[in-house]
Specification:
It is a single chain. This protein is an all-alpha fold. It has 2 domains: 2-72, no CATH class; 90-139 and 175-303, MetI-like fold (Orthogonal Bundle), CATH 1.10.3720.10. Helices cover 77% and strands 0% of the residues. It contains 14 helices and no strands. It has helices at residues 2-29, 34-37, 44-54, 60-72, 86-121, 126-140, 143-157, 170-199, 202-209, 214-225, 228-244, 246-251, 257-266, 270-298. Helix 5 crosses helix 8. It starts with a helix and ends in a 6-residue tail after the last helix.
């Protein structure tokens, strides 16, 4: 297991290096940020001065080396628009995205596990059909539409919950429930199908023959062996929540990483886009590593 972890860490470093090169090329292919600041009265000397201040007068290899060197020292550069350190800007937005994402993840995945197990153990009943309908409904409805409807019903009509901001616990209710509803259906269907496969296995039949309580058979033996596929999906879902809630963050005016990324992309703010992308890449790679470790805990055979 230790050898596998070392190999995975080396793969993470190579993946991160490749990601840094890819995002560096793609961001610069999107256009020149100086064009957004150029006016009819801007002189060529002023343009040259701006390029020199931002380091855009250097060749691409030199710019990439500056980017990678700063990344190795934890320096993501400064925003071209706000003239602030990128690490500071991400540090201000990341806690908001994490708090929203973690709460939505716990609620959505928790409900998906419970409902998926109940649907599999009550196959072809009204409960199973209701869960399948909920999963189809969740996958069919766009997240932004659900968010707008939720705001209209609970904020405009009944005036029960605020529509935006992070002033208190009440501000979390609508974004968390909307995001949880958005991520729950895929996990729910995956848990249900995995449980159906496991419930027909020989060791589950043997556990029942031994006289173990049905609750122990389902929640301890069957669910544990059915968690391999859901674990993979859960890791990808959680990593995607950090920037995957871009639309919802804009609908609810949530000051998170997703909203910061949209602003940076529209303004061609190279350092901010690069910094957020690298941060997301690190999070995805770290979560994948944690999921691999969780595999070994859920199924001891994988440790071999």
């Amino acid at each position: 297991m230790g050898r596998q972890l070392v190999i995975r860490l080396l793969q993470m470093l190579l993946s991160l290096l490749g990601m840094s090169l890819l995002i560096f090329v793609l961001v610069r292919a999107s256009g020149d940020p100086v064009d957004l600041l150029r006016t009819s009265t801007t002189t060529e000397a002023e343009v040259a001065n701006i390029r020199a201040q931002w380091g855009l007068d250097k060749s691409y290899p030199e710019q990439y080396w500056v980017f990678v060197s700063g990344l190795a020292h934890g320096d993501l550069g400064s925003s071209l628009i706000q003239r602030r350190p990128v690490t500071t800007m991400i540090g201000e937005a990341l806690p908001n995205s994490l708090s929203l994402g973690v709460l939505a993840f716990v609620v959505g995945i928790g409900l998906a596990l419970v409902l998926g197990v109940l649907a599999a153990t009550n196959r072809d009943t009204w409960l199973d059909n209701g869960v399948k309908f909920l999963a189809i409904l969740g996958q069919a409805l766009p997240g932004f539409w659900v968010a707008i409807v939720a705001i209209y019903v609970f904020s405009v009509q009944f005036r029960l919950l605020p529509t935006s901001g992070v002033d208190g616990p009440a501000n979390y209710v609508l974004p968390v429930l909307t995001l949880a509803f958005f991520l729950m259906p895929g996990m729910l269907r995956l848990v249900r199908s995995s449980m159906l496969d496991v419930l027909g296995s020989e060791y589950v039949k043997l556990a029942r023959i031994k006289g173990l309580p049905e609750r122990t058979v389902i929640w301890k033996h069957a669910l544990r062996n059915a968690l391999i596929a859901p674990l993979t999906a859960a890791g990808a879902i959680f990593a995607g929540l950090i920037t995957g809630a871009v639309i919802l963050e804009n609908v609810f005016a949530w000051p998170g990483v997703g909203r910061l990324l949209v602003t940076a992309v529209s303004g061609r703010d190279f350092p901010v886009v690069q910094g957020i992308t690298i941060m997301v890449a690190v999070v995805v790679l770290a979560i994948n590593l944690l999921v691999d470790i969780a595999y070994a805990y859920v199924d001891p055979r994988i440790r071999i």
